[in-house]
Amino acid sequence: MRILFIVEHFPAISETFVLNQVTGLIDRGHDVEVYPLGKPAGPVVHPDFEKYNLQSRTWKGPHIPPGWLRRVARAARELPRCLSRFPMATLRALNVFRHRRQAANLYLFYSLFPFLDHQDDFDVIHCHFGDKGALGQLWKDWGVIHAKVSVVFHAHEMAGLTTAQGRKLYGALFESDALLLPVTSYWRDCLLKWGAKPERTLVHRMGVDCERFLYQPNPIVPNKPIQLLSVCRLTEMKGIEYAIRAVAKLPPSHPGLRYTIAGGGPLYDHLSKLIIQLGAGESVRLVGPQPQDKVAALLREANIYLVPSVTDSIGCQEGLPVALMEALAAGVPAIGTRHAGIPELISHGVTGLLVNERDVDGLARAIESLVNAPHLCSKLVTQGRAVVEQEFNIRRLNERLEILFRSELAA
Question: What average pLDDT does this structure show over 46-75?
Answer without folding.
Answer: 90
